[in-house]
Design a protein that fits this description.
The protein is α/β, with parallel strands linked by helices and 302 residues long. It has a domain of 158 residues: Alpha-Beta Barrel (TIM Barrel). It has ten helices and seven strands. It has a seven-stranded parallel beta sheet with strand order 1-2-3-4-5-6-7. Helix 1 packs parallel to helix 9 and helix 8 packs across helix 9. The longest helix is centred in the last third of the chain and has 17 residues.
């Protein structure tokens, strides 16, 4: 997310190279990354950096899959969240053309709707996506920060017009649970936190679930970072106790155990680290085998 802004090109290239060396495949970005840290107040730096990396690594495009998102870019510097690009047919077409240009690509492997746009019928957005999949500009489409009912409407319309339906959800998810009626810091979207309904919908219909911010920005293991206040309730104490127990059995950190738990449930955890050591720890974590007993114990605390 911060490639090209707070994470410089040399560091970004080193992380990307190491990711591929360790067997990584999916690289996820967005057209709005990272407007809040850029000199212009607009996004695009992350996509441009990825484009430079791909151009500097001949043959790399055949080894990785690229995903990007659209819909949340500010219309002008300082306009977010009141004024953003949105998900009209024209907005989708124009934003995606800009993403391809910055990435230096003819197509991407997965295109996400970044956050819902209630000003536009979801059917119009589905038709815009149909134009892109029909032209071979994206292999798949997904949705981030959308309620399950709008995903269902979009998928139904896509099927009705013979198009590729949404097959992936990207939502905030970690091991701890927030208090009812609250959202984690940085989650601006009403439907941005993975709910039981969204999880059930995905499992029932075979949609992938991608989890952003699974490590609470490092708060599981970094003593200089505190677990956000929205997680301050008795259930958190019980879950952390079990997490510590299983982590000790694995010889792993809390954060690594959280990543392994996600993978055990078929969830793709997303890493936004800025250091090679963080990347290596995460790549080790997703290969940790949890036993059925460990999964049951981790799932049990309320």
């Amino acid at each position: 997310m911060m490639f090209g802004t707070t994470v410089d090109q040399t560091t970004s290239f080193a992380l990307l190279d190491r990711f591929v060396e360790r067997g990584g495949v999916w690289i996820d970005t967005a057209d709005c990354y990272s407007f809040w840290a850029s000199d212009s107040g607009l996004g695009g730096d992350s996509e441009r950096l990825l484009g430079r990396w791909l151009a500097a690594r001949p043959g790399m495009r055949d080894r990785v899959k690229i995903a990007t998102k659209l819909g949340a870019e500010p219309l002008w510097a300082g306009s977010w969240p009141e004024r953003r690009a949105g998900l009209s047919r024209r907005a989708v077409r124009d934003a995606f053309a800009g993403s391809l240009e910055r990435l230096g690509l003819d197509s991407v492997d997965l295109l996400w709707l970044h956050q819902e746009d209630r000003a536009v019928p979801i059917e119009e957005t589905a038709e815009a996506l149909a134009e892109l999949t029909g032209a071979g500009l994206t292999g798949r489409v997904g949705a981030s920060n959308h309620p399950a009912w709008r995903i269902e409407r979009a998928r139904a319309h896509a099927r009705a017009i013979g198009s590729t339906p949404i097959d992936a959800l990207q939502l905030n998810a970690t091991y701890l649970r927030v208090r009812p009626g609250t959202r984690p810091p940085g989650v601006e979207h009403r439907f941005g936190v993975l709910s039981e309904e969204q999880r059930d919908y995905a499992e029932t219909h075979g949609l992938e679930v991608w989890a952003y911010t699974p490590l609470l920005g490092g708060a599981y293991d970094n003593p200089d970072k505190t677990i956000p206040e929205v997680y301050d309730h008795p259930g958190t104490d019980r879950r952390l106790a079990v997490l510590d127990e299983v982590a000790a059995e694995l010889g792993a950190t809390r954060g690594q155990t959280v990543l392994a738990w996600h993978v055990a449930h078929g969830v793709r955890p997303m890493l936004g680290g800025s250091k090679v050591a963080q990347l290596d720890a995460a790549m080790d974590a997703v290969r940790l085998p949890l036993t059925a007993d460990q999964i049951e114990r981790l799932d049990a605390p309320a």
